[in-house]
Specification:
Blueprint lengths: L2 E4 L9 E3 L2 E9 L2 E11 L2 E9 L7 E5 L8 H12 L7 E2 L15 E2 L11 E5 L5 H9 L4 E5 L3 H14 L4 E4 L3 H7 L5 E7 L15 H10 E11 L2 H12 L5 E6 L8 H8 L5 E6 L38 E3 L4 E10 L2 E9 L4 E10 L4 E5 L8 H14 L3
Parallel strand pairs: 8-11, 9-10, 9-12, 10-11, 12-13
Antiparallel strand pairs: 1-6, 1-7, 2-3, 3-4, 3-17, 4-5, 5-6, 13-15, 14-15, 16-17, 17-18, 18-19, 19-20
Length: about 400
């Protein structure tokens, strides 16, 4: 993560604009003067920088990106830090040298999760595309079909975005997110196929696996009639567990293969084959005769994240209500509070227990109105996030 370290970091008087960057305010953490957040705007994007006094013998201070608001490409954040770094009298160390090509890489094919909430085109999806060989093959073999790749590994995303540009593949979109969340918000009956090739086994933490009973239900909902969900794995236990999940369905059609030759072989699969490891395939097809999918998806829920008039205007009102609310299928945790003049910033964690979301809520009191929004954009509109937001609205509207 980009950052710089100094004996004492001095922020210029705010708000101020330097170049293309607007530094809006610095909000101090309530109960901890050693931490603060600086809101930065660049074009139509906004993010926080976090300033922290380190608890070491030197008591130095560090300024870095707040990870829960980071944006792509990394070079945007890095440039903001470099601007503030250049204003300091003394700097101990930094990693803000000239941006690499990938740190400046911007692409029309890197999409946000909001892009897919009202998606209407038929598509092919690959989850965890890694090196991207199979995903690139899909896009080339299906030039008139949108192909979507999901990945959380940043270098893999940057690599495939360069390949998209080099090979001029106009039908390939990339998204950096949790696949389980994306499937929940996508409309019904759109996917021709969903591929999961060599997912992380997570033997010690099986709840972190992509393939689960809920995931299977959502995948079948999103698939078109007779569409295919394809799991390919070198881990026999993962394959067996996934097969048992599939067999719980009342009716299904599936194909099972062992050591079947694939049309595209990744470098990892080639290595496993040299090690004589077995490769397992599970292909599950959406059965149109019996509906095993959820009766409705999150598209049927009003997923607006606006706030009505907020009545809590005094600091005491923000520190005297429960910070943790736990329900059966959702939770809300108000982690901490930051304050800058007439602005309060709530650091939040909420949503589903296995797929939590972290957001900052900006609350600004003006003479004639109150402005409130989630910094960096609205939460991903899952069922659990909507319920947590509705509860947050209730407690913020009480005096």
């Amino acid at each position: 993560m980009p950052h710089f370290l100094a004996p004492h970091i001095v922020i210029p008087p705010l708000p101020c604009t330097i170049g293309d960057y607007h530094f809006v305010y610095e909000a101090k953490k309530y109960g901890d003067d050693k931490q603060s957040l600086i809101l930065v705007r660049f074009d139509d994007q906004e993010f926080y920088l976090r300033k922290v006094q380190r608890n070491d013998s030197q008591h130095n201070e560090i300024l870095k990106c707040e990870k829960n608001t980071r944006i792509k490409p990394t070079g945007i954040i890095k440039n903001a830090l470099k601007i503030l770094c250049d204003t300091q009298e003394s700097v101990i160390s930094h990693n803000l040298n000239n941006n690499s090509i990938r740190q400046n890489l911007q692409s029309d094919y890197l999409k946000s999760i909001a892009f897919f909430t009202n998606f209407t085109e038929s598509f092919i999806l690959e989850i965890g595309f890694g090196s991207g060989r199979h995903l690139l093959h899909l896009a080339k073999e299906n030039p008139h079909t949108i192909c979507v790749g999901i990945e959380i590994h940043t270098p893999s995303i940057e690599q495939i975005l360069r390949q998209i540009q080099i090979e001029n593949l106009n039908n390939l979109y990339i998204i950096n997110c949790d696949a389980r969340i994306l499937l929940e918000i996508m409309p019904d009956n759109l996917a021709q196929a969903i591929y999961i090739h060599f997912p992380v086994p997570w033997h010690k933490k099986p709840h972190r696996r992509v393939f689960s009973e809920i995931f299977l239900q959502q995948a079948l909902r999103v698939l078109q009639p007779n569409g295919m969900l394809h799991l390919r794995s070198d881990d026999e236990q993962y394959f067996t567990d996934s097969l048992h999940i599939a067999l719980r369905l009342d009716s299904l059609k599936m194909h099972i293969y062992k050591n079947q030759q694939a049309s595209v072989v990744s470098k990892y699969e080639a290595r496993w084959k040299r090690q004589c490891k077995n490769i397992f395939d599970l292909q599950i097809f959406k059965n149109t005769s019996i509906d095993n999918t959820p009766t409705k998806n999150t598209q049927n829920i009003q997923k607006t994240f606006h706030f009505d008039k907020i009545l809590r205007k005094n600091l005491d009102n923000y520190i005297n209500y429960p910070s943790k609310i736990l329900e059966k299928d959702w939770f809300l945790h108000i982690d901490s509070l930051y304050k800058a003049h007439n602005i309060y910033v709530l650091m939040l964690c909420f949503g589903d227990f296995n797929q939590p979301q972290n957001k900052f809520l900006h609350i600004e009191f003006r003479e004639d109105e109150t402005k409130s929004w989630y910094v960096g954009g609205d939460p991903i509109p899952t069922n659990a996030a909507v319920k947590a937001h509705q509860y947050l609205k209730k407690i913020l509207m009480k005096e």
